[in-house]
Amino acid sequence: PSLGTQRHNFVVDFVQQHKPKKVIDLGCADCRLLRRLRFLRDVEFLVGVDIKSSSMKKKMHSLAPFPGEYLQPGNKPLTIELYEGSVTEEDPHTKGFDLATCIELIEHLQLAEVGRFSEVLFGYMEPTAVIVSTPNADFNCLLPGRPKLRIPDHKFEWTQVEFRSWASGICGAYGYTVEFTGVGKVANGPESSGFCSQIGVFNRESSRSNVPPGNEVTEDVPVYNLLYRMEY
Ligand code: SAM
């Protein structure tokens, strides 16, 4: 399978294993991952967010039930929502999730925006688990032409050390633990190159309450734009 499919397979396996009910896909683009997640048994609420609405709008109707599903509705509830919005902005619709996925998203942010994104994701949305995938710059020496950036759209690509250092900072600041893995390996490649796509799987420490003591619960104003809603 393609690297993109392998990344999505990783998420699907995680969902099958950990059974989150509420899943939010940040940077969902053409909704490809959402289209796979909607079939998984335990998922009851699926949300996609992207700053660019064009690919979402083109493909969002593919999230609707198939004719057969209308005729013979399954017994599990499922609601799907798509929002146009930026992961650097707080919106109450992004809170309360069991899992947030950020598949090849962060390298599309300006490096200077990553701190804000981290604050919004781990400090405000504070999902129970987070899967972040991003290109591993250490792997680029194995790619044809040894590119510095794999596509010009990327604002940066992190080495394994850089990714781990960002992730450890997150864990300390927001009360998460992280495990590192990845997808895409070349047979007989040097061990130090790692995976083509590096992945961090974060889990919120259970001792952490949702509202830190002393913090006022502020009035949340929605800033995202709802594009699509489907209740099965
Ligand atoms: N996650 C998808 C996948 O697995 O195939 C596609 C990732 S695509 C390479 C990156 C996506 O992130 C694009 O759709 C882009 O519009 C979106 N994006 C970039 N900056 C964003 C931001 N600040 N907030 C939300 N989405 C953003």
UniProtKB/TrEMBL annotation:
Organism: Paramormyrops kingsleyae
Any one GO biological process: oocyte development
Gene Ontology, cellular component aspect: nucleus; P granule
Cofactor or coenzyme needed: Mg(2+)
Taxonomic lineage: Eukaryota, Metazoa, Chordata, Craniata, Vertebrata
Catalysis: reaction(s): small RNA 3'-end nucleotide + S-adenosyl-L-methionine = small RNA 3'-end 2'-O-methylnucleotide + S-adenosyl-L-homocysteine + H(+)
UniProt GO MF annotations: metal ion binding; RNA binding; small RNA 2'-O-methyltransferase activity
Family named by the database record: Belongs to the methyltransferase superfamily. HEN1 family.
Tagged with keyword Transmembrane helix: no
Entry EC no(s): 2.1.1.386
Superkingdom of the organism of origin: Eukaryota
Name used for this protein in its record: Small RNA 2'-O-methyltransferase
Keyword vocabulary terms for this entry: Magnesium, Metal-binding, Methyltransferase, RNA-binding, RNA-mediated gene silencing, S-adenosyl-L-methionine, Transferase
